[in-house]
UniProtKB/TrEMBL annotation, chain A:
Protein name, UniProt field: Urease accessory protein UreF
Principal subcellular localization: cytoplasm
Matches recorded under HAMAP family: UreF
Recorded family membership: Belongs to the UreF family.
Domain of life: Bacteria
Compartments (UniProt record): Cytoplasm
Gene for this chain: ureF
UniProtKB/TrEMBL annotation, chain B:
InterPro entries in alphabetical order: CobW/HypB/UreG_nucleotide-bd, P-loop_NTPase, UreG
Organism: Ancylobacter aquaticus
UniProt: GTP binding residues: G25, P26, V27, G28, S29, G30, K31, T32
Protein name (Swiss-Prot/TrEMBL): Urease accessory protein UreG
Reported function: Facilitates the functional incorporation of the urease nickel metallocenter. This process requires GTP hydrolysis, probably effectuated by UreG.
Keywords: Chaperone, Cytoplasm, GTP-binding, Nickel insertion, Nucleotide-binding
One GO process term, biological-process aspect: urea catabolic process
CobW/HypB/UreG nucleotide-binding domain ranges (all copies): 21-192
Subcellular localization: Cytoplasm
Amino acid sequence: MLSLFATLWQADSAFPNGGFAFSNGIEGLADLGQRLDREGLTNVLAMALTHRWMGMDRIAVSLAFAAADDMDRLAEIDLRFDAATIPALQRAGSRRNGLGLLTAHARLGTGAAAEMKRQVETGRMRGHLPVIQGAVWRACGMDETSVLAASAYTAVTGMTSAAVRLSLIGAVEAQSCLRATLPLMARLVDDAGRAGPLTCDDFESLTPMLDIATMRHATSEVRLFSN
Amino acid sequence: MNMIDNQRAKEATGHAVAARVGIGGPVGSGKTALIEALIPVLHARGVDLAVVTNDLVTKEDAERLRRSGLIDPQRVAAVEAGACPHTVIREDPTLNIAAGDELEARFPGVELILFESGGDNLASTFSLDLVDWWIFVIDVAGGDDIPRKKGPGTLRCDLLVINKQDLAPHVGVDLPRMLEEARSVRAQRPVILTDARRGDGVGDVADQIMKAVLFR
């Protein structure tokens, strides 16, 4: 039961971690004229989950969860994740969001969060969000499946919230996109649990539309979100 | 930040932490102009400072300060507010806290960090997780009824600044009455009139900052 409550606590958008400032490609897609209505947004969420989260974040989360007490190993995973994240703005957003989560937990005294924050500040770690999630959420008492579920869930709720704040879709209608995505999230987290051991060599993503939108967003003079 | 949090922050960062002051208020009230006027005054008093801006849509405020020649551009950090100018300084100030921590790490001698909000309405307030003390800036051109509206920003800030006092006769504002009403709704807590463009009242604002968070 503790793991369940810890998961509700950490997946709650009210938990301060800076996530509200990142659209992770949604604002860039809107600038490209992509329709993000109910069908369009649902498709984008499925694409991001299947072809980015599953091959990148999910692996980093699990590896960091296993290495939560090993700062050298966490730094190695973090650097490999950094190298495998191609769009600069995606990389920067993941690092800043990770530092936001770390900042809150360092203040709260969670596990080794303060030490990890020092590693980021001294440049030994980049502080990517999935790595911080895996290590810090384990220290919060969450089991690995719950950490994966919270990682997937917060990834899509962040993008959904950005679409609402950009007035691309209504706040209620956006929930239908989220509901439609729940079975996919459940399947991906189940598949992750059944998969064999993974390494940093398994990092992969293929979301060209999102990547191009994110790269174009980097040069936009007018933008509401960091990425 | 209270004493316990401050000690925890020192343990977390491994170095002394700077005093953090918020400057909020409606869009166009003169927050950036006030900071531009404060920087040379505080520098002249030997204060080692840095600035974090929260721009809503662009990085205009940060760029304006960086290009001003008033401060080392490296000492100005920008945080995007994700369309949520309230959230970034109150409900979720972690990005701002992290930006302040980064400035402290890069400039170990920094003793004061000013956080400029992206501009919002009268309900805007700062989290005490983020700042030790905060200023709310309104201006006479926004209307002399602003104090009477008793917005949380007007009531709860540590110092209320009424800027653009020079415009009062041009916009039909009874300045003495506006000042009296502001003091009344704030139960006589500090209110300062300024004309940030000309520097009027800016020394008084600096006095308040020095006294409240730098203890000198």
